[in-house]
Amino acid sequence: MKNIALIIFVFTCFVQISYAGGGWPQPAKKGYFKLGQSFIISDSFYDLNGDIIDITTISLYTTSLYGEYGITDRLTGIIYMPFFVRSTLNDVERRQSQIVEPGDAVNSFGDTDISLKYALSPGKKIVVSASLLFGLPFGKIAEGTTDSGDPRILQTGDGEFNQMIYLDASRSFYPAPFYASIGAGFNNRTENFSDEVRYSAELGYTGIKDVTLSLKISGVQSLQNGDSGGGAGNGLFGNNVEFFSFGPEVSYGFTDQLGITAAAAFAASGTNILASPNFSAGVFFKL
To answer: How many CA atoms lie within 13 Å of 205's alpha carbon, on the beta-carbon side?
Structure first.
């Protein structure tokens, strides 16, 4: 039970660490908008030592809106808004289906990110952009105890306001049907959470008509400068989470403006993180 809050935080990291545009800003008055659905279901967990342990099955379903809009040719506004998040905890049963601890669930709005991306080298072969992101703690923390008195916490956010500076660099290898992006940033966190270094990379292939294939990696490294161990001082949420993930994404355009995406992310290693893949799908529109 004590790992529930840690798990939800890690999933939120997976969702928020990637950005659709890489180093490229949106042109003025143009945009990219996506309605997405993601889910993760897991009965195993990377503990503080990086070992995989069994846990009561956790499920998290997130319905979100993501948007990028070109304010100018160099400045892009970005929002990630998980407007419906459902987190569930399965019943704990003994043999003959006897319920030892009943399950639980919480439904609410999730933590929202807003950011600005500014192109530092527009028109160059390698496009470099800087982003300033604000993480708004709109999620819900549902507290309680189990029948045995152990803490039970279901969350759709971490309860802290964070600010992140992120640098992206991207290059298209046109006329070869490839592109590549890398990025890294510093995430300042409040409420005695440890600050983080985040990083990402993407390699994409556009040689199939109307289809884009990509491989993405992402990671988080804690600076260990907040509360020690896996839990915050108030016992409500995890801290010092670290992971390295990878996974494919495919995008198909029905028209120049409308299309669909599907992706998966796998945790190759980590601490305080689910040892199960995160799957997502979405419908996008280009303005």
So the answer is: 8
